[in-house]
Amino acid sequence: MKLENYEVHLPSYSIGNTIYDKIGPVCESYGKTVLVIGGRQALDAALDKIRAAVEQTELEIIGVELFGQDCTYANVERLRAMPIYHEADMVFGVGGGKALDTVKCLCITDDKPVFTFPTIASNCSACTAVSIMYNEDGTFLKPNFFVRPAMHAFIDTEIIAKAPCRYMWAGMGDTYAKFYEATISSRDERLEHFTAVGVAISHMCRDPLLAYGAKGFADHQKGISSYEVEQIILAIIVTTGVASIFLTKDFTPDYNSGLAHAIFYALTSYPIIEEKHLHGEVVGFGVLLALLVDGQDEEFEKVYQLNKAVKLPVSLEEIEISEQQWEESTNRIPHMSDVAHYPYAITKQMLTDAMRKLKERAGRENHE
């Protein structure tokens, strides 16, 4: 059967310690006036460096605005109503996922050129064609998909290396999950070209983290912009973003998620997860259980060792979830949309057995 017409727009990016020097060559063809929108801490970290780079170009920064608290449609409309937004030829989005998703939802919808300046490496928002939208109370609403990502991402490794290390720490868990979930959810299927490319690319969501994760995270804790840090940043921001674009089409099954994310979303029923734990942190824990359910004992051991090395969670206690709450969650997880397209049905017994094996692995370590 011939597939319907489709299009793929891939992200472009620059990366390095002095990469803002490329702002002029990349952005000048889109106009002259720039509005900068970002988070408060992100602007404190990056705005002076952006201003210094822009002063060497034909561009002019005409305003700086805070994006708000969450990526909400109300926030987007508040920014859209600002006269200075309409005066600007382009927008520079500066910050983490919520800030970048807000400016993407604002600008891509309006077909206004938008450029991303990630200041942390917690997710792939800088390079994706989707914004994760929230309700006004801070709870998850839905993903808002676009035809294309931002025009270009400027990934300054020096700024990211000096950011709070917990963001990259959590980003690692969400990144290697992409490989395991994509390969499991696509297993034994005849894949369309774009899906097959996405699954192939997803290997680079895992491999650099296993190779460089422990050293890179140790360097990041010291604020060092090393080769290993750069490889982790590329995996989190770029590779995951490119894989997501290939793996997400509205006329195909969702290969972009799986059991690890189902576990995360089920556990968000308990306020402690949203209040004290990061998305990728909990997803990284969920990967351990997903691999045990899938019988991938060797891969489980690799991820377990990486989690231990960087102190990502390997137990319920580390994410402050009780045995009773886990037991309750095992009733919900099999019905989550994230496992609707999986090579087999997830059962409560599978989850119970996986948790028992995880505890046994931790017990062996405690006796060694």
Describe this structure as you would to a colleague:
With 368 residues, this protein is an alpha/beta fold. It has two domains: 13-161, Rossmann fold (3-Layer(aba) Sandwich); 166-367, Dehydroquinate synthase-like - alpha domain (Dehydroquinate synthase-like, alpha domain). The protein is built from 15 helices and eight strands. It has helices spanning 23-27, 40-54, 73-80, 83-87, 97-110, 157-161, 165-185, 193-221, 227-247, 259-267, 271-276, 279-293, 297-310, 323-332, 348-367, and strands spanning 13-16, 33-38, 60-66, 90-95, 114-118, 130-134, 140-145, 152-156. The chain has a six-stranded parallel beta sheet with strand order 1-8-5-4-2-3. β4, α5 (97-110) and β5 (114-118) form a beta-alpha-beta unit. α7 packs across α9 and α8 (193-221) runs parallel beside α13 (297-310). The protein is globular and about 60 Å long. It starts with 12 loop residues before the first strand and ends with a helix. It comes from Butyricicoccus intestinisimiae. Keywords: Metal-binding, Oxidoreductase. This is Iron-containing alcohol dehydrogenase family protein. Residues 13-138 form the Alcohol dehydrogenase iron-type/glycerol dehydrogenase GldA domain.
